[in-house]
Design goal:
Elements: H1 4-11, H2 16-37, H3 47-56, H4 68-88, H5 103-124, H6 128-159, H7 168-178, H8 188-202, H9 226-251, H10 260-285, H11 291-314
Length: about 325
């Protein structure tokens, strides 16, 4: 039987509307703090919202050689995947879809869809210039996927007792009973690894190798304009919120207040903190890395940190 509350969850909270408002606001605050760190005034906090609305009102130019349905559908598919991830996170004291066994695996698959939508959309444009960005996006995804899976395995082993759990609710229950994962000494290396995975997953500086605007002019999105480009930009804003929210659910969880509005505010504040340490601070401190540097960094340093936590958790430490 259809539950009408699901429609509210999907369209309003914690679904599409919350992702749109929360993502654009989070990006605006991120840009404002980043500007202050560089002693600039910076754009208005609502600038991402203005940019999105401006792009939605502009003409959409479709390349002659493009596959039109795929070209226009790719950004929408990415947005739907991000909203679905938000519905699966138990960050408000509840999960919109309830307890789904092995929903962590579902989240891993869904996290690849926004990157795949960029790759497929760029390929559908038929532009050889987009092809350069596509290859870079593929390398970026390959770079952080291994450390991310190792982090999730470490957390699943820690919360799983004698086995490995892939349930986000089980991880939330473990943290409610034993304290946040980030306070477990064996999980600190995994938390550091996840903080470093976040900016590459989102695709922000210094790991924006696919876009690389100083080298290859917008990368896979070079042929996009108007509303489709606006949706891709929105995906970037929402992905900041979703990936920061995933970190909060995995490492900063605990007992909620029982009041949905209060838990939502606490979750959003946690996302702000994660965004500052994983994106704003790193972006202000480092120059953009080359493709081979990104791959080497994630498969050595970041994967090494995740492996330490995985080994410690596996032996019950």
């Amino acid at each position: 039987m259809f539950n009408w509350m699901w429609l509210f969850y999907i369209l309003v909270f914690p679904g599409a509307l919350f992702c749109f408002v929360g993502g654009t606001l989070l990006n605006g605050l991120d840009r404002k703090v980043y500007a202050k760190m560089q002693q600039r005034i910076g754009p208005p906090i609502l600038q991402p919202f203005y940019d999105f609305m401006k792009l939605m009102g502009k003409e959409t130019i479709i390349p002659y050689e493009a596959n039109k349905p795929v070209f226009l559908g790719a950004p929408v598919v990415g947005f739907v995947a991000l909203v679905t991830i938000m519905l699966l996170l138990p960050q408000f004291g509840f999960s919109a879809f309830g307890d789904i066994n092995a929903d962590m695996i579902v989240i891993i698959y869904l996290l690849t869809i926004p990157a795949a939508s960029i790759i497929i959309g760029g390929a559908a444009s038929g532009s050889p210039y987009a092809g350069v960005g596509i290859s870079r996006e593929m390398v970026s995804v390959i770079s952080f996927e291994l450390p991310l899976v190792m982090v999730l395995l470490a957390i699943g082993r820690k919360a799983g007792g004698d086995g490995v759990t892939f349930s986000m609710k089980a991880i939330a229950d473990y943290q409610a009973a034993n304290g946040a994962m980030i306070c477990q000494w064996s999980m600190i290396p995994a938390a550091l690894a996840m903080l470093l995975v976040v900016p590459c997953e989102v695709g922000c500086h210094p790991f924006d190798v696919a876009e690389a605007e100083t080298e290859i002019c917008e990368g896979p999105l070079v042929e996009y304009s108007g509303a489709p480009l606006g949706v891709f930009k929105l995906n970037y804003y929402v992905k900041q919120l979703v990936v920061s929210g995933l970190f909060a659910a995995l490492f900063l969880g605990g007992k909620g207040t029982g009041i949905v509005a209060a838990d939502a505010v606490i979750f959003y504040v946690e996302c702000l903190v994660v965004t500052f340490f994983s994106m704003t601070l790193i972006r202000a401190s480092l120059a953009r890395l080359k493709v081979e540097q990104v791959f080497k960094f994630y498969w050595t340093v970041v994967a090494g940190l995740a492996l330490v936590s995985l080994v410690l958790a596996w032996f019950g430490l």
